[in-house]
Protein backbone atom coordinates (compact mmCIF):
# COMPACT_ATOMS: atom_id res chain seq x y z
CA UNK A 1 0.00 0.00 0.00
CA UNK A 2 2.63 2.51 1.08
CA UNK A 3 4.95 1.47 -1.70
CA UNK A 4 2.11 1.79 -4.15
CA UNK A 5 1.36 5.36 -3.02
CA UNK A 6 5.01 6.31 -3.12
CA UNK A 7 5.40 4.87 -6.61
CA UNK A 8 2.41 6.68 -8.01
CA UNK A 9 3.63 9.93 -6.49
CA UNK A 10 7.07 9.39 -7.94
CA UNK A 11 5.55 8.61 -11.33
CA UNK A 12 3.34 11.69 -11.32
CA UNK A 13 6.35 13.70 -10.24
CA UNK A 14 8.44 12.34 -13.10
CA UNK A 15 5.59 12.99 -15.52
CA UNK A 16 5.33 16.57 -14.32
CA UNK A 17 9.06 16.95 -14.72
CA UNK A 18 9.41 15.86 -18.30
CA UNK A 19 6.31 16.75 -20.22
CA UNK A 20 6.34 20.49 -20.79
CA UNK A 21 3.88 20.46 -23.65
CA UNK A 22 1.55 23.44 -23.88
CA UNK A 23 -1.34 21.32 -25.20
CA UNK A 24 -1.02 19.03 -22.22
CA UNK A 25 -0.35 21.55 -19.48
CA UNK A 26 -2.31 24.69 -20.39
CA UNK A 27 -5.66 25.97 -21.60
CA UNK A 28 -6.07 29.13 -23.57
CA UNK A 29 -8.59 31.10 -21.55
CA UNK A 30 -9.29 34.27 -23.50
CA UNK A 31 -8.44 36.32 -26.56
CA UNK A 32 -10.56 34.72 -29.31
CA UNK A 33 -7.80 33.25 -31.42
CA UNK A 34 -5.12 35.71 -30.34
CA UNK A 35 -3.44 33.02 -28.22
CA UNK A 36 -1.98 30.12 -30.17
CA UNK A 37 -0.32 26.83 -29.35
CA UNK A 38 2.08 25.97 -32.17
CA UNK A 39 4.74 23.49 -33.19
CA UNK A 40 3.01 20.44 -31.63
CA UNK A 41 2.73 22.13 -28.26
CA UNK A 42 6.32 23.35 -28.06
CA UNK A 43 5.53 27.01 -28.57
CA UNK A 44 2.77 29.29 -27.34
CA UNK A 45 2.18 32.86 -28.47
CA UNK A 46 -0.03 35.55 -27.00
CA UNK A 47 -1.02 38.60 -28.94
CA UNK A 48 -2.62 41.95 -28.29
CA UNK A 49 -4.37 44.38 -30.61
CA UNK A 50 -6.64 47.31 -29.99
CA UNK A 51 -9.70 45.10 -29.55
CA UNK A 52 -8.28 42.57 -27.07
CA UNK A 53 -5.33 40.90 -25.39
CA UNK A 54 -5.11 37.17 -24.66
CA UNK A 55 -4.15 34.72 -21.97
CA UNK A 56 -3.72 31.15 -20.80
CA UNK A 57 -3.88 29.15 -17.59
CA UNK A 58 -2.42 25.86 -16.39
CA UNK A 59 -4.67 22.82 -16.22
CA UNK A 60 -3.06 21.79 -12.94
CA UNK A 61 -2.99 23.57 -9.63
CA UNK A 62 0.34 23.43 -7.85
CA UNK A 63 1.16 23.42 -4.19
CA UNK A 64 4.88 24.15 -4.10
CA UNK A 65 7.18 23.66 -7.03
CA UNK A 66 10.13 24.74 -9.08
CA UNK A 67 8.55 26.19 -12.16
CA UNK A 68 10.46 27.43 -15.19
CA UNK A 69 9.14 29.18 -18.27
CA UNK A 70 11.03 30.65 -21.19
CA UNK A 71 9.55 33.90 -22.45
CA UNK A 72 10.45 36.19 -25.31
CA UNK A 73 8.80 39.55 -24.75
CA UNK A 74 7.08 41.88 -27.22
CA UNK A 75 9.85 43.42 -29.36
CA UNK A 76 10.18 46.93 -30.73
CA UNK A 77 7.86 49.58 -29.43
CA UNK A 78 6.02 47.72 -26.66
CA UNK A 79 5.05 50.83 -24.68
CA UNK A 80 1.82 50.40 -22.76
CA UNK A 81 1.81 46.61 -23.03
CA UNK A 82 2.00 44.38 -19.99
CA UNK A 83 2.95 40.70 -20.10
CA UNK A 84 2.03 38.90 -16.90
CA UNK A 85 3.26 35.52 -15.72
CA UNK A 86 2.16 34.47 -12.26
CA UNK A 87 0.86 31.87 -9.86
CA UNK A 88 -2.45 32.55 -8.13
CA UNK A 89 -4.98 30.67 -6.03
CA UNK A 90 -7.67 33.27 -6.92
CA UNK A 91 -10.52 34.40 -4.72
CA UNK A 92 -10.64 36.31 -1.50
CA UNK A 93 -7.58 35.83 0.74
CA UNK A 94 -5.71 34.52 -2.25
CA UNK A 95 -2.03 33.72 -2.52
CA UNK A 96 -0.12 34.96 -5.54
CA UNK A 97 3.45 35.12 -6.86
CA UNK A 98 3.87 37.61 -9.70
CA UNK A 99 6.15 38.43 -12.55
CA UNK A 100 4.94 41.33 -14.73
CA UNK A 101 6.84 42.81 -17.64
CA UNK A 102 6.11 46.44 -18.45
CA UNK A 103 6.90 47.33 -22.06
CA UNK A 104 8.70 50.39 -23.36
CA UNK A 105 9.72 52.34 -26.44
CA UNK A 106 12.28 50.59 -28.69
CA UNK A 107 15.64 50.57 -26.95
CA UNK A 108 14.27 51.73 -23.58
CA UNK A 109 14.30 49.20 -20.76
CA UNK A 110 11.44 46.95 -19.80
CA UNK A 111 10.59 46.90 -16.11
CA UNK A 112 10.26 43.52 -14.40
CA UNK A 113 7.74 44.00 -11.63
CA UNK A 114 7.35 41.37 -8.86
CA UNK A 115 4.96 40.91 -5.97
CA UNK A 116 3.96 38.31 -3.38
CA UNK A 117 0.47 37.96 -1.89
CA UNK A 118 -0.31 35.80 1.12
CA UNK A 119 -3.89 35.41 2.32
CA UNK A 120 -4.99 38.37 0.21
CA UNK A 121 -2.25 40.73 1.35
CA UNK A 122 0.18 41.98 -1.27
CA UNK A 123 1.77 45.46 -1.39
CA UNK A 124 5.20 43.88 -1.66
CA UNK A 125 6.42 45.28 -4.95
CA UNK A 126 9.99 45.07 -6.13
CA UNK A 127 10.98 46.20 -9.62
CA UNK A 128 14.05 45.55 -11.72
CA UNK A 129 15.67 46.36 -15.01
CA UNK A 130 17.17 43.35 -16.79
CA UNK A 131 20.82 42.92 -17.74
CA UNK A 132 19.89 41.87 -21.30
CA UNK A 133 17.34 42.73 -23.97
CA UNK A 134 14.39 40.43 -23.10
CA UNK A 135 12.89 40.79 -26.59
CA UNK A 136 15.81 39.38 -28.61
CA UNK A 137 15.77 35.81 -27.29
CA UNK A 138 13.97 33.50 -24.91
CA UNK A 139 15.03 33.83 -21.28
CA UNK A 140 14.06 31.62 -18.36
CA UNK A 141 11.89 33.05 -15.60
CA UNK A 142 11.63 30.75 -12.59
CA UNK A 143 9.74 30.51 -9.35
CA UNK A 144 11.02 28.21 -6.64
CA UNK A 145 8.27 27.93 -4.06
CA UNK A 146 8.74 25.64 -1.09
CA UNK A 147 7.77 25.80 2.59
CA UNK A 148 10.84 27.87 3.52
CA UNK A 149 10.93 30.51 0.81
CA UNK A 150 9.91 31.83 -2.56
CA UNK A 151 12.82 32.60 -4.88
CA UNK A 152 12.36 34.47 -8.17
CA UNK A 153 15.13 33.82 -10.72
CA UNK A 154 16.02 35.00 -14.19
CA UNK A 155 18.24 32.68 -16.26
CA UNK A 156 19.18 30.96 -13.00
CA UNK A 157 20.19 34.18 -11.26
CA UNK A 158 18.06 34.77 -8.16
CA UNK A 159 16.64 38.30 -8.07
CA UNK A 160 14.31 38.16 -5.10
CA UNK A 161 13.63 36.02 -2.08
CA UNK A 162 10.54 36.05 0.13
CA UNK A 163 11.22 33.99 3.23
CA UNK A 164 8.69 32.21 5.35
CA UNK A 165 8.46 34.40 8.44
CA UNK A 166 5.32 32.95 9.95
CA UNK A 167 7.19 32.76 13.25
CA UNK A 168 7.11 36.60 13.23
CA UNK A 169 3.45 36.72 12.31
CA UNK A 170 3.84 37.28 8.54
CA UNK A 171 1.49 35.11 6.45
CA UNK A 172 3.12 32.78 3.94
CA UNK A 173 1.56 30.96 0.95
CA UNK A 174 1.53 27.29 1.90
CA UNK A 175 -1.93 25.82 1.85
CA UNK A 176 -3.75 27.13 -1.22
CA UNK A 177 -2.86 25.44 -4.51
CA UNK A 178 -2.17 27.89 -7.31
CA UNK A 179 -2.67 27.89 -11.05
CA UNK A 180 -0.12 29.35 -13.44
CA UNK A 181 -1.49 32.26 -15.45
CA UNK A 182 -0.14 34.43 -18.20
CA UNK A 183 -1.59 37.26 -20.23
CA UNK A 184 -0.70 40.02 -22.63
CA UNK A 185 -2.84 43.12 -22.30
CA UNK A 186 -2.87 46.87 -22.56
CA UNK A 187 -2.27 49.14 -19.57
CA UNK A 188 -1.02 52.31 -21.18
CA UNK A 189 -2.71 54.35 -18.46
CA UNK A 190 0.10 53.33 -16.04
CA UNK A 191 2.62 50.85 -17.47
CA UNK A 192 5.24 52.91 -19.29
CA UNK A 193 6.80 55.83 -17.44
CA UNK A 194 3.77 55.80 -15.21
CA UNK A 195 1.36 56.20 -18.15
CA UNK A 196 3.16 59.04 -19.96
CA UNK A 197 3.99 56.90 -22.98
CA UNK A 198 0.98 55.46 -24.77
CA UNK A 199 0.67 52.39 -26.98
CA UNK A 200 1.32 52.94 -30.68
CA UNK A 201 -1.51 50.88 -32.17
CA UNK A 202 -0.08 51.20 -35.68
CA UNK A 203 2.50 48.61 -34.45
CA UNK A 204 -0.18 46.07 -33.41
CA UNK A 205 -0.53 43.14 -33.13
CA UNK A 206 2.01 42.80 -30.31
CA UNK A 207 3.25 39.28 -29.63
CA UNK A 208 5.00 37.51 -26.73
CA UNK A 209 6.23 33.90 -27.03
CA UNK A 210 6.58 31.05 -24.55
CA UNK A 211 8.61 27.83 -24.67
CA UNK A 212 10.11 25.04 -22.57
CA UNK A 213 7.74 25.08 -19.64
CA UNK A 214 9.09 22.82 -16.93
CA UNK A 215 7.58 22.12 -13.53
CA UNK A 216 9.11 20.05 -10.79
CA UNK A 217 6.04 20.46 -8.70
CA UNK A 218 3.36 18.97 -6.58
CA UNK A 219 -0.05 19.05 -8.13
CA UNK A 220 -2.89 19.70 -5.73
CA UNK A 221 -3.46 16.96 -3.21
CA UNK A 222 -0.91 14.49 -4.53
CA UNK A 223 2.36 15.57 -3.02
CA UNK A 224 2.89 16.71 0.50
CA UNK A 225 5.29 14.70 2.65
CA UNK A 226 6.57 12.69 -0.29
CA UNK A 227 8.06 15.67 -2.00
CA UNK A 228 10.72 15.80 0.70
CA UNK A 229 12.57 13.34 -1.54
CA UNK A 230 12.91 16.13 -4.10
CA UNK A 231 15.76 18.51 -3.50
CA UNK A 232 13.89 21.61 -4.64
CA UNK A 233 11.51 21.11 -1.76
CA UNK A 234 14.21 21.98 0.75
CA UNK A 235 16.42 24.11 -1.49
CA UNK A 236 17.48 27.52 -0.21
CA UNK A 237 19.89 30.17 -1.45
CA UNK A 238 23.49 29.04 -1.21
CA UNK A 239 26.38 31.50 -0.81
CA UNK A 240 26.65 32.05 -4.57
CA UNK A 241 22.92 32.69 -4.75
CA UNK A 242 23.14 35.23 -1.95
CA UNK A 243 25.95 37.02 -3.74
CA UNK A 244 24.03 37.03 -7.04
CA UNK A 245 20.91 38.45 -5.39
CA UNK A 246 23.00 41.26 -3.86
CA UNK A 247 24.54 41.99 -7.26
CA UNK A 248 21.11 42.21 -8.91
CA UNK A 249 19.63 44.31 -6.14
CA UNK A 250 22.57 46.70 -6.16
CA UNK A 251 22.74 47.16 -9.94
CA UNK A 252 19.27 46.47 -11.34
CA UNK A 253 16.67 47.01 -8.64
CA UNK A 254 14.74 50.22 -9.28
CA UNK A 255 12.00 49.95 -6.66
CA UNK A 256 11.78 48.18 -3.33
CA UNK A 257 8.76 48.58 -1.06
CA UNK A 258 11.04 47.80 1.86
CA UNK A 259 12.93 51.08 1.39
CA UNK A 260 9.97 53.29 0.43
CA UNK A 261 9.69 55.39 3.57
CA UNK A 262 7.09 57.75 2.06
CA UNK A 263 4.79 54.83 1.64
CA UNK A 264 5.38 53.39 5.09
CA UNK A 265 5.80 56.42 7.38
CA UNK A 266 4.82 54.34 10.41
CA UNK A 267 7.58 51.80 9.77
CA UNK A 268 8.27 49.11 7.23
CA UNK A 269 6.36 45.82 7.05
CA UNK A 270 7.68 43.14 9.42
CA UNK A 271 9.23 40.97 6.70
CA UNK A 272 11.42 43.86 5.55
CA UNK A 273 13.76 43.58 8.52
CA UNK A 274 15.28 40.37 7.15
CA UNK A 275 13.98 40.16 3.58
C1 LIG B 1 11.16 53.11 -20.03
O1 LIG B 1 12.23 53.96 -20.31
C2 LIG B 1 12.32 55.09 -19.46
C3 LIG B 1 13.45 55.98 -19.98
O2 LIG B 1 14.65 55.24 -19.99
C4 LIG B 1 12.54 54.63 -18.03
O3 LIG B 1 12.52 55.74 -17.15
C5 LIG B 1 11.45 53.65 -17.60
O4 LIG B 1 11.75 53.09 -16.35
C6 LIG B 1 11.38 52.53 -18.63
N1 LIG B 1 10.42 51.46 -18.34
C7 LIG B 1 9.10 51.66 -18.19
C8 LIG B 1 8.28 50.41 -18.10
O5 LIG B 1 8.56 52.72 -18.09
UniProtKB/TrEMBL annotation:
List of catalytic residues: 96, 100
Superkingdom classification of source: Eukaryota
Keyword Ion transport applies: no
GO BP term, pick one: plant-type secondary cell wall biogenesis
Pfam families xref list: Glyco_hydro_16, XET_C
Predominant location category: secreted
Enzyme Commission no: 2.4.1.207
Residues covered by the GH16 domain: 16-210
Post-translational modification: Contains at least one intrachain disulfide bond essential for its enzymatic activity.
Enzyme class: transferase
Record's GO cellular component terms: apoplast; plant-type cell wall
Gene3D superfamilies xref list: 2.60.120.200
Keywords: Apoplast, Cell wall, Cell wall biogenesis/degradation, Disulfide bond, Glycoprotein, Glycosidase, Hydrolase, Secreted, Signal, Transferase
Family the UniProt entry places it in: Belongs to the glycosyl hydrolase 16 family. XTH group 1 subfamily.
Name of this chain's protein: Xyloglucan endotransglucosylase/hydrolase
Species assigned in the record: Erythranthe guttata
Amino acid sequence: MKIHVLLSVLLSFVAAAICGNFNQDFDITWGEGRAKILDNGKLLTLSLDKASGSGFRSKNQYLFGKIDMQIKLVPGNSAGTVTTYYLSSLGQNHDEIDFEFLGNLSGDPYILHTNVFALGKGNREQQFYLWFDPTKDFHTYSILWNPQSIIFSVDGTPIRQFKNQESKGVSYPKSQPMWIFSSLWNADDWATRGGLVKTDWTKAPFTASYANFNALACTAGSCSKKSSVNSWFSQSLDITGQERIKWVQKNYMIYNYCTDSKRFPQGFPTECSTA
